[in-house]
Each structure stands twice: as structure tokens, then as C-alpha cells.
Specification:
214 residues, mainly alpha
Length: 214
């Protein structure tokens, strides 16, 4: 097999292998999120009950829920894209790896946000958190733009209107997460809330994608 970067690996099993590998990375990242939620321990005759200790952990629940939903949306969108992407090449493999690099990083800013959301340094945690999703949005755009440019890696009968629809939806991601990033410097709660709204937006817009993928 030639080693030229532009060489297409057209076998369906190659896209299947890449998607299976990516699925494993998404699964590990989403599972690691729960490690931030600790079992509280009652000490001696402390008047503080277990329920109170559980409630005090609300930052961990919030960060877990937000990151879980966001990673789930990313996995669903990644899966949908691969119903249209029918070939891979070397550059695409590395672009997919770039996306997975940021996905595997998500548990860290999640734990950081949970730990510091009530701390004076909460803005720093929120900046790191929103900045991570900004990088993911940029990586998703690079991945899709490379695959869809000139229908380079798409199925031969993928609908043009569908491609343009995905392009428009993906264009929103980077500037929206950039806004959340700068908002974190001003108001942590607003930045986190806006990130949640973005996750919900992509839940509904991603589910509307339809078309011929052959």
C-alpha cells in the first residue's frame, strides 16, 4: 500500500474501525466523569446528616450532568457524521485523533469546575471548562469540513442540501462557545448556563439530520 497522505482507504471496514475506536474513547471519557462524585463520610456524632452532605455536593452533580450531556451529544453527532462519511484517509485519521484528544480531556475541567465553582477562583475554572468545549467545537468543524469539502470522503449520493444544513449548524459552534468562554470572565453562572443551552441546541438540531448516506 502506498504511503501518500492523500491515498484513500475506501474499505467500509476502515471507517468502522475508526468509529469503533472513537466510540471507545467517548465511552471512557463519559464514564470517568462519575469519579468526581464522591461518597460523603459521616464523622463520629456529627450533627450534619447524610442528606445534608449529599446536597452540599451539588457542584459535582451539576458539572457531571452538564459534561455527560455534552459528551453524549458529541458522540451522537460523531455517529451521525459517520453515516455520511464512507472513506477515510491519513489526514482525516489525525483530525479525528485531535477531536478525541480534547474529548479525553473533558473529565479534568469537569472536576475543576465542580471543585471551584463556589471558590473565588471560579472564573478560572469556568474559563478552562468553556475553553475546552471551544477547542472541541473547532475540532468538530475541522473534521467535518475536511470530509465534506468537495465530497472528499462522503458517500456518492449524500444530499447536497443536507451537507449545507450541517455546515450551517456547525458554523454556530465555535462563535457560540467563544462567547461562553469570554462570558466566563464576567459571570460564571451565565457561562455554565449558556453551555447547557448549547448542548440542548445540538441535541435537537442533530436529531433533524436526514438524507441519503449511500
Amino acid at each position: 500500500m502506498r504511503t501518500d497522505d492523500s491515498l484513500l482507504i475506501s474499505a467500509e471496514k476502515e471507517t468502522g474501525r475508526l468509529e469503533a475506536f472513537s466510540d471507545g474513547v467517548f465511552a471512557i471519557a463519559i464514564t470517568l466523569l462519575v469519579l468526581e462524585i464522591k461518597v460523603p463520610h459521616l464523622e463520629g456524632e456529627s450533627p450534619v446528616g447524610l442528606l445534608t452532605l449529599l446536597i452540599k455536593q451539588w457542584p459535582s452533580y451539576l458539572a457531571f450532568f452538564l459534561s455527560f450531556i455534552t459528551i453524549l451529544v458529541m458522540w451522537v453527532n460523531h455517529h451521525i457524521l459517520f453515516t455520511y462519511i464512507k472513506r477515510v484517509d491519513k489526514r482525516f485519521l489525525f483530525l479525528n485523533g485531535l477531536l478525541l484528544l480534547f474529548v479525553t480531556f473533558v473529565p479534568f475541567p469537569t472536576a475543576l469546575l465542580a471543585e471551584y465553582i463556589q471558590h473565588p477562583e471560579a472564573k478560572v475554572a469556568a474559563v478552562v471548562y468553556s475553553g475546552t468545549y471551544l477547542c472541541i467545537a473547532l475540532a468538530f468543524n475541522l473534521l467535518w469540513r475536511y470530509a465534506s469539502n468537495g465530497y472528499r470522503l462522503l458517500g456518492k449520493n449524500v444530499d447536497r442540501a443536507l451537507v449545507e444544513s450541517i455546515n450551517r449548524q456547525y458554523l454556530l459552534g465555535p462563535p457560540a462557545y467563544l462567547f461562553a468562554f469570554f462570558l466566563a470572565f464576567i459571570n460564571v453562572a451565565a457561562s455554565v448556563g449558556f453551555s447547557m443551552l448549547l448542548a440542548l441546541y445540538f441535541v435537537f438540531t442533530g436529531s433533524l439530520w436526514r438524507g441519503n448516506s449511500d
